[in-house]
Amino acid sequence: MVEPNAVAAADAALAEPLPAAAPPSAVAVTAAYAVHLFTASGVVCTFLAAAEVCSPGCRPRVVFAWLGLQVLIDAADGPLARLCRIKQTAPRIDGRTIDDLVDYLSYTFVPLLLVWRMGWVPGSHGGLWVAPTMVASLFGFANKGAKDEAGGFFLGFPSYWNIVAVYAGLAHAAAGPWPNAALLVVLTVLTVLPVRFVYPNLAPQPWRVPLLAATLVWAALLAALLLGDYPRAPAWLVAASLVYPVLYVVLSVWLDLQRRRAAPATLRA
To answer: What's the predicted TM-score (pTM) here?
Structure first.
């Protein structure tokens, strides 16, 4: 039998308020807001890329240079935010909102604006090709389930339109605008379909490290393409740069199929 006094003591202990967490230091708060500012600085790169697109003598390589700098900012701000525990130290500002706004502009809007501006799609009204893609990408960004960070996947084509724009320039130089039109249609449909693409930074093991290493090699090949006589490039260099995207798609399809096959087995268990 439990003593009444013991029960009363236990109830009193439960009723006592938990000690309040210590507020973050001024240094921690300053560091957190500095990370928010760093994330937001990506919009400056995006603006400079857009300004180049709108200039009379648009230079695609300059556009891609600014967009590439934004990619580096985007890659670095996440680890910095986690290091600063930004949700606890600067909770009034939603860094994810800043990130999504800058990402849409830099990964979708400006690259597709460049494709339209350079006439890399058919017809005098090239906007008819890029406008549906911009709308589909908006739905992709607004989809709450677009990022399966635990599983290591994106749901739908993950709006890598900056990369698509690089290859659109190469394709137009080699074969004209129609291959780009076909590619835009296919990827636009895939953007809103429930198909999975690997999230390289969070790819399932044992694929993460090899995929990230291959990404670095591929980035070097893209830099070589852009530093050459872009949009003209040696066929062997273009072919070498396409190995990674092809393997990425194949790996995404294979892992997606594995995941779908495992789901019924999990439900039966």
So the answer is: 0.86
